[in-house]
Design a protein that fits this description.
The structure is a single chain. The protein is mostly beta strands. The chain has one domain: Electron Transport, Fmn-binding Protein, Chain A (Pnp Oxidase, Chain A, Roll). Helix content is about 10%, strand content about 35%. The strands form three sheets. It has a seven-stranded antiparallel beta sheet. Strands 1-11-12 form a three-stranded antiparallel beta sheet, with no helix packed on it. A two-stranded antiparallel sheet has the order 7-8. A hairpin with a 4-residue loop joins strand 4 and strand 5. The N and C termini lie far apart (about 40 Å). About 30% of the residues are buried. The structure holds flavin mononucleotide.
Length: about 190
């Protein structure tokens, strides 16, 4: 038996990323769960932000942000940056988050993040509680530890985290690589 629960936002797991932004010499970082990829070519992503966030104006006015993927080493920072505002706290200092400059946008990248997506806003959509910023991913950089000798990205050992129903978790045991059900035996992709 199933019970109808009505509409809700309980799709899970979702990422819990650290979004960095900057405007007029100030930099900030906040946690976002409402984020994802929305197009392959050109590569595009979104983040939905409440206008009350300190980061909102920075993203709105600069038209730029960086999505920093997070790991179990960053989980404390994820929680702190999702509960304290840059309005009154330097979260980089509080969480001891070192940064490096982005290549393509004016926002800092978190040095401890295994992968950072540099985004330039293309479209803003006011949805209600949140405004969705849809952006081109104009640059991307990875911690070299997660690149193989051919430069291929492998984040299996990065300890990426996910967020589901109020709980942060590190990704568990892999259950099969994409296409494993249709790949011919002995043939590697
Ligand atoms: C797990 C988690 C996910 C969150 N996801 C979002 C989100 O997608 N959009 C948003 O506007 N706020 C989200 N928040 C809340 C902001 O991160 C929080 O309000 C933060 O203090 C805003 O920082 P700022 O005022 O420095 O911009 C999330 C918080 C947590 C803990």
């Amino acid at each position: 038996m199933r019970r109808e629960l009505g509409g809700g936002t309980v799709l899970a797991p979702v990422p819990a990323v650290l979004v960095t932004c900057a405007y007029e010499g100030r930099e900030n970082v906040f946690t976002a769960g409402w984020t994802g990829i929305v197009n392959t070519r050109p590569p595009m992503a979104y983040v939905s932000v409440r206008p009350s966030r300190f980061s909102y104006d920075m993203i709105d006015k600069s038209g730029e942000f960086v999505i920093n993927l997070t790991t179990k080493e960053l989980v404390r920072a994820v929680d702190i940056c999702g509960n304290k505002s840059g309005r009154d706290t330097d979260k980089f200092k509080l969480c001891r988050l070192d940064t490096v400059p982005s290549e393509k946008v004016g926002c800092p990248i978190l040095a401890a993040s295994p992968l950072a997506l540099e985004c330039r806003v293309r479209q803003r959509t006011e949805l209600g509680s949140h405004t969705m910023f849809i952006a081109d991913i104009v640059g991307m950089s990875a911690d070299e530890r997660f690149l193989d000798s051919k430069g291929k990205l492998n984040l299996e050992q990065a300890g990426l985290i996910a967020y589901a129903h109020g709980q942060y978790s590190s990704l568990g045991r892999g259950l099969g690589r994409i296409g494993y059900t249709v790949r011919k035996k002995g043939k590697r992709t």
